[in-house]
Design goal:
- By secondary structure, the chain is an alpha/beta fold.
- The protein has one domain: TIM Barrel (Alpha-Beta Barrel), CATH 3.20.20.70.
- Helices cover 26% and strands 18% of the residues.
- It has a 12-stranded mixed β-sheet with strand order 7-8-9-6-5-4-3-2-1-10-11-12, covered by helices on one side.
- Helix 3 packs parallel to helix 5.
- The radius of gyration is 18 Å and the shape is globular.
- Bound molecules: S-adenosylmethionine and iron/sulfur cluster.
Length: 318
């Protein structure tokens, strides 16, 4: 279905929980209390997917919080995958539970995952995630490879003064491993940690630090937000996602569903449409409303201009 600006909306990101076993400083408060009592039930989510698929939404991404801490997540993925009209179900995860779950997820129809990894340094990893163990993530990534998931994409939030010294090393990973490394500009969202201005660095820094990157186009990677590059002899690709420095709203193709049952027409808008408890034609109507309410673009974001979203990122899903 097309929105008011002619964009084809074919992608729904579903946050299945606000809870997480990490507490990344840019995403959620250290003392966040999980509100799992408020989350949509599996049946509710499947019904929403059915309604979305009937409107031409074919691609679904499971996110969170950390999706793999939701009880019964593998069965839920399989049910979503089996809905008529669904072409692809993917997942964004911190990877910590992939070691034990990757094979089951693959069998449930999750053919590819994005894994968050902001640094290759064990200590810095513990610091940014407030206690996480990088080895669990690396084991999870290997398990995803072994399960046959492909392509595997690593999401790295660029933070000036924290990981800009690792850009070259992270990009080089795409030469030795068949992974895509995607650098994402730090977004000023939610009520959490206030970063200094120098933390907000544009993705163009990646091209300055790794000048041999060559721009490529991949029509199969038409998510509309990633600019793709490759190293000479690279096995994987380098992606740049620039919500601050580069306006990709013109090709936005997505809606978001929060774990507590709200549709967000735009990541950075305060607008939310409550759909918990809606069924049948009312549910379809609410999805159409969310598509119709997609703004042309989000307001400016910068170190001093915060997102208008009224949630921390773990309560939206990225
Ligand atoms: N827990 C999963 C994970 O970390 O991949 C999925 C949920 S997480 C909210 C989804 C994505 O949002 C992650 O790649 C994370 O790095 C990104 N993210 C969270 N807060 C962000 C922020 N303030 N700016 C940019 N990206 C952010
Ligand atoms: Fe958890 Fe993902 Fe947010 Fe980190 S980015 S706190 S792993 S939801």
């Amino acid at each position: 279905m097309k929105d008011s600006f002619g964009r084809e909306i074919n992608y729904l990101r579903i946050s299945v929980t606000e809870d997480c076993n990490h507490r990344c400083v840019y995403c959620m408060p250290a003392d966040a209390v999980p509100r799992s009592w408020n989350a949509l039930k599996d049946d509710d989510i499947v019904e929403i997917v059915e309604a979305a698929a009937s409107l031409g939404i074919t691609k679904f991404r499971i996110t969170g919080g950390e999706p793999l801490v939701r009880p019964g997540i593998v069965d839920l993925c399989a049910r979503i995958h089996d809905v008529k009209g669904v072409e692809e179900v993917t997942m964004t995860t911190n990877g910590t539970r992939l070691k034990e779950m990757a094979a089951d997820l693959k069998a449930a129809g999750i053919n590819r995952v994005n894994i968050s990894l902001d640094t290759l340094d064990e200590k810095k990893f513990r610091q940014i995630t407030r206690g996480g163990d990088i080895n669990a993530v690396l084991d999870g990534m290997n398990a995803a490879f072994e399960a046959g998931m492909s392509p595997i994409k690593l999401n790295t939030v660029l933070i000036g003064g924290f990981n800009d010294d690792e850009i070259f090393k992270l990009a080089e990973l795409t030469r030795s491993c068949p992974v895509d490394v995607r650098f994402i500009e730090l977004m000023p969202i939610g009520d959490i940690h206030q970063f200094p201005e120098r933390a907000y660095i544009p993705c163009s820094v990646v091209l300055e630090k790794v000048p041999e990157l060559v721009r490529i186009n991949d029509k199969n990677d038409s998510n509309g937000v990633t600019r793709l590059y490759k190293l000479n002899n690279g096995r994987g690709r380098v992606g740049l996602i620039s919500p601050l420095s580069c306006d990709f709203c013109g090709s936005c193709n997505r809606l978001r569903l929060t774990a507590d049952g709200c549709l967000k027409p735009c990541l950075h808008s305060f607008e939310e449409i409550h759909i918990k408890g809606l069924h049948g034609s009312e549910l379809q109507w609410a999805l159409k409303l969310a598509i119709a309410h997609k703004p042309k673009a989000h307001a400016a974001l910068s170190a001093t201009e915060r997102s208008q979203a009224r949630r921390d990122m773990n309560r939206i899903g990225g």
